[in-house]
Design brief:
- The chain is globular, with a radius of gyration of 21 Å.
- The two termini are 39 Å apart.
- The protein has 15 helices and 14 strands.
- It is 43% helix and 14% strand.
- The model has no long low-confidence stretch (mean pLDDT 97).
- Helix 2 (33-49) runs antiparallel to helix 11, helix 4 (59-73) crosses helix 11 and helix 7 packs parallel to helix 8.
- The chain is α/β, with parallel strands linked by helices and 397 residues long.
Amino acid sequence: MLNNTHIQHFRAETPGCQHRIHLNNAGAALMPKPVIEAIGQHIQLEATIGGYEAAAQAHEAIEGFYNALATLLNCSPANIAWVASATDAYNRALSAIPFEEDDVILTTNNDYVSNQLAFLELQKRYGVRLIRAADLPTGGVDVDSVQALVRQYHPRLVAVTQVPTNSGLVQPVAEIGNICAAEDVLYLVDACQSAGQLPIDVATIQCDFLSATFRKFLRGPRGAGFLYVSDKALELGLEPLFVDLHSATWLDADFYEIRSDARRFELWERPYALVLGSRACVEYALAIGISDIAQRVRQLADYSRARIATLPGARILDEGTEHCGIVTAHFAHQKPSAIRQALDAAGINVTFPQQNNAVIDFERKGVRWAMRVSPHYYNTETEIERLVEVLQHALPT
């Protein structure tokens, strides 16, 4: 369990805590010093001896990235690919699936906007059928609906976002994984918002692909993400639509051989400073302990919900039986621009997603925008009280 001494240590290692109240960790968390230093040191090495030479010198440290992330996810380093972002990872996984006309993609109403757009593009280009499972009355996907639809349509792919970006909801990805494993259906999980704030065990989830970023709750750099690829997906020969000299070997004028491991989803050119920063943030989280992080984040989020709910006209939008570190609220008859201005002036970072970020969810809830507050373990109750104080003055009574 993290105590106040731990929290003060983490804050001392986080330069941004000196300047802002950062409650936008679901957007991009503040990086700690070890991550900043890992990135900066490699950039300096590149500037000193050259980019290729720096990569060669740091080869062992770079390989350590795969070991660190494999520990976080409970898999082999051979199942890990470094990519430029969560969406990059997700789309590479989608591109590896040989969709044909009338193939079914089964997803949820709460899946991330960019994923929904990718599904619609596949529908337009290949004629696949997009089906969304029903939600429970309390919010979140109905697992029984998923099971019934899998048995009815035997989809080419089931795709679920574990934590939707515009809600504190946590989807039951392990239960859905049991269904997909039993029915032998490919399963893609978006862990963009869950990686770093919740324990993730790919063996328990039983997914074939899992994508995420480092900039959010893992507290890593922007422009860095990862893709987990299961042994099953590798053995099926699934590979991204486009490969290069890193992901495949050109053996003959008309023949290439794909890599045997998940690095077939990588490209040769990578910003190695960000790869090392990615390793540093994963090792930082592992040293703290993901279970302790999850407990602290949930405590702060619950505290935030309770305090925001006392404000005039406040409506907490988070649904489902399990909540995480994302808190969403709406204030009746208020304009988000005025609230944003007041918070910016007070040095408080939150975000205001609009309806086109979550069309189905927001239409059902009858709102066109939300305030998203996403605390992390280095935040404090005092910071949340300051948020509430500023909101009290900004909101008409």
